[in-house]
Amino acid sequence: MIGALGLAPDQVEAVLRSASLAPSVHNTQPWRFRVLPDRIELHADLDRRLPATDPEDRELRLSCGAALFNLRVALQGFGVRPLVTILPGQEAPGALATVRRGGGLKPDDEMLALLKAVPTRRTNRRPFFESGVDARHRHALVRAAELERSWLHIVGTREEVATMKGLVRRAHQIQQENDGVQAELEAFTGHRPGATDGVPRASAGVRPEAQDEWAFRDFHPGQQHQRLSGKDYESNPLVAVVCSHYDGPLGELQAGQAMQRVLLTATTLGLSASFMSQPVEVWAVREELRRALGGMLLPQTVLRVGFSTPVPATPRRPVAELLLEPTTSTN
Ligand SMILES: Cc1cc2nc3c(=O)[nH]c(=O)nc-3n(C[C@H](O)[C@H](O)[C@H](O)COP(=O)(O)O)c2cc1C
Question: Does residue 207 share a domain with residue 270?
């Protein structure tokens, strides 16, 4: 590891470690970093694509956007103001983003709280408590998305909740019948001793049942245990859709950063969150969701937010495996 942006090698390593703690679809960790003295480049790791679940790499870029947000927060923790260029083109071929030093800065209290939340944030698939998420918390989550040039749509009315449940269920059903999607889920879940990626059983939550109110992804392929069902889940979770204003990679990278800012903000408020991505992964259902949201915003990911008990951390690949050689091109 070399030093970069005025930071010592071990500080750069700590920054990349923070970036790698971001959430990613099936914990694929589809990111790589090139460290140069004057910039850190973020690249997609195209060997970690999920072609059946995420054929357009949209969730791959959301995940990379989340890693970019963590990287920005970690740099601020070391007193560096990150100067980010999204999709830099010629200056860093193939990169999703470059981050340079834009001078020094003293992180404010909000940034310090987000920094503290980076290692403690987790996807929590357990049942949440019945106590609701109050208006102050909702406002903080909406603001977090807005600060990242995106939008958080809170699924509010009874009709909206019913529509959303229907869309989640329908998309879930379509994915259940898609062998490619199921094979990718299986490849990244279950018993994988020593794995540094994927979703370990301890993080899988309870096994979903057909009668559940919300259709959660089944992270227990081939397993028959833990007979909890929808009635054990909270009756009225806060469901929120992270939306972008733009279609394509720019909007996805913005939404990925927004998603992570929302998740870290939730963590600072003592809230837990999990994902219900099925309706944004099935193209036709995503279109329906887009229309249900008024047609202007692009739904990128669906979150369930509430209060719960703590869950263990998922594994991460060592930083050394995430590095691109300074001379290697990813094109
Ligand atoms: C774009 C995206 C989509 C995801 N979709 C789902 C999902 O539908 N269901 C789910 O249980 N987890 C989902 N996850 C959560 C990942 O599985 C989780 O981030 C990963 O296993 C790492 O665990 P951690 O978030 O606890 O660090 C998603 C994450 C991302 C970034």
Answer: yes
The answer on 140 and 54 residing in a single domain is: no
Per-residue pLDDT reduced to its tens digit, 207-243: 777 667 777 887 876 655 454 555 577 878 899 999 9
- CA 24 to centroid of ligand 1, rounded, Å: 5
**63: containing domain:** 9-120+314-324
Secondary structure of residue 245 in the 3-state scheme:
coil
Burial 227-242 (b: 16+ CB within 10 A, else e): eeebeebbeebbbbbb
31 CA from centroid of ligand 1 (Å): 15
Q: What is the pTM of this model?
A: 0.95
Ligand 1 centroid to residue 36 C-alpha, Å: 30
Say yes or no: CB of residue 23 within 6 Å of ligand 1: yes
CA distance 286 to 300: 9
